[in-house]
Amino acid sequence: RTSDLVHAVTVDVDRLASATYQLLTFMTGAVVLAVYVVVAARLSLPLTALVAVSGLVLLWLLAGRTRESSDRGDDYVESSRRIFAMASDSIAGVKVAKSVGAELRDVAIFETLSGALSSSYLGLMRSYSRAKLWLDVATAVAVSVLLYVAVTVLHLSGAGLLVPRLLGALVDST
After folding, report:
1. Distance (Å, rounded) from C-alpha 11 to C-alpha 20?
2. pLDDT digits (tens, 9 = 90+) for 158-169
């Protein structure tokens, strides 16, 4: 259909550009993460391992939220395709619609589809916001627990241990 082509040329190209940007951001983040992990492992291997395990647990716990956001995104794409199809069909048949007095029907259909698109977008944003909230709260709790474990179980002394080890790691690497 013509509407599918129009949708592909406009919305899908925009989505591809967004995905490319997100891929590049992910790769940059992966490089920075690798550097952080190396530095953290030099400072305290047990704590680094504990942080890694905690991160994996958080990912596993939030997998349902990720699936929900993905489903909401699919709903949004489908609503977008429907409104593009309706607009394309309406434009293609505008003379016929005028001759038979169907303009109001097309406006009503467009209004309904526009409402569905808005609703699916709001659902997507709500899902993202909930997932972000849970991630932020879970991260704060995990950092608190990890700091407690670092001080009480691993007997790390915070800045008093961090600064000498960091300076030693920098001196050793030169």
Report:
1. 14
2. 554 455 555 555
